[in-house]
Amino acid sequence: MVRSLAKVVHKASSPAVLEQVSKHYGRVKALEELSLEVTEGELLALLGPNGAGKSTAISLLAGLRRPDRGRAWLFGLDPRDPQARANLGVTPQETGLPNELRVHEVLELVQAHYPNPTPRRELLERFGLGGLERRQCGGLSGGQKRRLAVALAFAGNPRLVILDEPTTGLDVEARRSLWEGVKRYQAQGGTVLLTTHYLEEAEALASRIAVIDRGRLIAEGTVGQIKARVGLKQVRFAAAELPPLEGVSRLEREGDTFTLYTPEADTVVRQLVQKSVAFKGLEVRSVSLEEAFVALTGEPQKE
Ligand SMILES: Nc1ncnc2c1ncn2[C@@H]1O[C@H](COP(=O)(O)OP(=O)(O)OP(=O)(O)O)[C@@H](O)[C@H]1O
Q: Which SUPFAM superfamilies does the record match to this protein (predicted)?
C-alpha cells in the first residue's frame, strides 16, 4: 500500500513520465517497453537515429496518441486531460504558420488560449524576434519562422516545453539564438524535453540525455557519460590481416579495408604499430552521432 502510494506521488511530482510504453503502427514497432521520466527543472535531450521512436514518444506525452501498452503521464494526469495540457507547450517538427498573419497576430492568437500567457515582449526578445512584430509570417526567413514556431511553444507560460528537433535546418547563428531562449526559460525554472539529432545541441543545453534506438532506451546519463559512449573515432586502413585489438567497439571489413570504431583511436593505432600490422592509407576521423549509434547498437564485433 505504502509502495503504490509512493509510486503515485512520484509520478504526480514529475512533469512527464512514460512507463513501459509500447506503440506499434501496424507491423512497425515504434516503441518497445520504453520508460522515461522528465523531472522538474531539467532539460532532458532525447537522442536517437532516424526512426528511433523520438516523435512517437513525444506524441504520447503530448496526448496526441495513446500507447498500446504501458502508461503516459503528464503532471500526474493522463496527457489527454486538458488540465494537464494547459501546462504544456509543444513545437512540432514542421513549421506551419499562416502566411497572411503578422507575427504579433500569431502570438496573440496562441496566447489567447492560456489564462496566464508569457508577455509578448518577453517572447519576442527571448527568441530574437524583436522588430518583426508587424511582419507577415510569409515574409519571414526560414530561421525566423522556426524561431517563431519555437516561441509559440512558450506563449502559454508552460511548466513543460517539448521541442521536437527545434533547430533542424537552421544556421549556426539562428541555432545559438534559439538555444539562448531555451536556456533562459530553464534558468527561470522551466522544464524541457528536447529531441535532436545533434550531439552538439544536447551538449549545449541538456542536463541529462536519453538515447533511444528502435524504440528502446539504450543509454541514459549526463552529457559526459553519453559522450564517452558515443564519442567514437573511426580508424580506417587497408591491411591483409588483423590481430585481436583492444578498445574496439565495432569492426567492419570490406575486402582488405578495415573500419574500426573506438573511443581511443591513439591506443588502437599504437597497437597496430606494436603488432607490426602492415597497414596502408590510415585515416582517423570523428564519427557522426548517427554512425556512433550504429556502432553502439549494431551487432557485436565481427570480421
Ligand atoms: N503514422 C505512422 N504510420 C506508420 N509508421 C510510422 C508512423 N509514424 C512513425 N512510424 C514509424 O515508426 C518508427 C518510429 O518513428 P518516429 O517518427 O517516432 O521516429 P523518430 O525517432 O522521431 O525519427 P526521426 O528522427 O526521423 O524524426 C519509424 O519506423 C517510423 O517509420
A: P-loop containing nucleoside triphosphate hydrolases
Q: Does residue 23 line the site of ligand 1, with CB under 6 A? A: no
Which residue type, as a one-letter code, is found at position 177?
S
Residue nearest to atom 17 of ligand 1 (CA): 55
In one-letter notation, the amino acid at residue 185 is Y
Asked if ipTM goes beyond 0.90, one says: yes
Q: Which residues, in sequence order, are bridge partners of residue 259?
A: 236, 252
For ligand 1, what atom is nearest to the CA of residue 197?
Answer: 25
Q: 20 alpha carbon to ligand 1 midpoint, in Å?
A: 18
**Cβ of 92 less than 6 Å from ligand 1:** no
Atom 16 (ligand 1): residue with closest C-alpha?
Answer: 53
**All domains of the chain, ordered by start, with CATH?**
8-228 (3.40.50.300), 231-297 (3.30.70)
Q: 34: which residues sit within 8 A by CB, 6+ positions away?
A: 18, 20, 21, 22, 53, 57, 70, 212, 215, 216, 217
Condensed to tens digits (0 to 9), the pLDDT of residues 159-168 reads 999 999 888 7
- Separation of first and last alpha carbons in the chain: 54
In the chain, the amino acid numbered 155 is A
